Amino acid sequence: MAFSSYYLMLICSLLLSISSCIGQTSFQPKALLLPVTKDSSTLQYITQISQRTPLVPIKLTIHLGGQTLWVDCEDGYVSSTYRPARCGSAQCTLAKVNTCGDCNTTPRIGCSNNACYNTPENPFIKTLYDGGEITEDVLSVQSTDGSNPGKFVNIPSFIFTCVPTFLTEGLASGVKGTVGLGRNDIALPSQLAQVFSFPRKFAICLSSSTKSSGVIFFGDGPHMMLPNIDVSKNLIFTPLITNPFGTGSVPFLNESSSEYFIGVKSIRVNGKPVPINKKLLSIDKRGNGGTKISTGSPYTILETSMYDAVTKVFIEELSNVTKVAAVAPFETCFSSKDIGSTRVGPAVPAIDLVLQSKQVYWRIFGANSMVEISQDVICLGFVNGGVKPTTSIVVGGYQLEDNLLQFDLPRSTLGFSSSLLFRQTTCANFNFTSKA
């Protein structure tokens, strides 16, 4: 009987109708959420998810373009519901992996015989592990009506990847893995949508504060922030572009990237076009170039010639402000006393990432472009990425803060708000204290 039930579940997984086979509770949420905090030391964005039987809360770092949720199974992983994915199983098919093998030591959690394996990535130390065991266990996530947090719901057979402890190097203190939100079938957004039959979309709203939580929503809106503002309204939309090659720390050239690319066509500073090599804005036949959005980088990274061109125009437009010595990792810094303030941050020239037309652009105001170093020094929060990087522009975490970004996977579109400060709210204003 147990044998039949197990293989029935595998068949259902393959057909993407997991919820009908695992006896999911009658409560079907319309959306789910994760609270997200910013770690002050690493500048990583951290969430907490309960996993295993009995449930254990674990801290995980958000990896926007990550292919999988991966967890350290070497250090104290104990669960009565842990199940490795066997070679040829529906879980392996869903994960699009063909690598199978046996444990070269005594079998244990994270190292099983006749199991399939993938290659999870830690983007913060630019390391891949070619031996992550595909497995499944209970996962618990909180529901929401878009305005308030609601009940926790359990996913009895959530597919994730087991890794050894060394892969957690470089993660924030106490963090046991990463949450992949990428464009593939075993990333968190896709699995949640499959289980609960809501739209395969999610929205991130990262707080700029290390003391207040931002939020990630899974499913449809509304996405309400105090004082009663639906920040999912009035978004600007642009296509998501598929990079045909993997673009992680160590690129895979035989599969498309799970990361999120957008089609930046030009850059403006204070409304003035920046002279840049337009070829760098396109993705070439090897997957190089283009613009991606990443929480794996704390600040936006620009290819060297782009960085030089943008900072040259920025300095010219800020000619009345005293330039001061660079402060690593930033090369372009100014005296704070010469810069005023506005409701969208320091009074500096806006930087526009111009998208499919001149009328469609992502505007970066002072709150997202300038980093306060001290009482006297403020720096442009863009980093020189060197010559011939894999990706020409990487829009980093600092530039995403207090912006709502909505990723619609079936439609392959990104909706973005630009700074929520203009709407007199922030990403720290979701009401986590009241229950739906």
From TrEMBL:
One of its GO terms (molecular function) is aspartic-type endopeptidase activity. PROSITE patterns: PEPTIDASE_A1. The keyword Secreted applies. Keywords: Secreted, Signal. GO terms for cellular component: extracellular region. It comes from the Eukaryota. Residues 1-23 form the signal peptide. GO terms for biological process: proteolysis. Residues 45-417 form the Peptidase A1 domain. InterPro entries: Aspartic_peptidase_A1, PEPTIDASE_A1, Peptidase_aspartic_dom_sf, TAXi_C, TAXi_N, Xylanase_inhibitor_I-like. PANTHER family: ASPARTYL PROTEASE-RELATED, BASIC 7S GLOBULIN-LIKE. Belongs to the peptidase A1 family. This is Basic 7s globulin. It comes from Nicotiana attenuata.
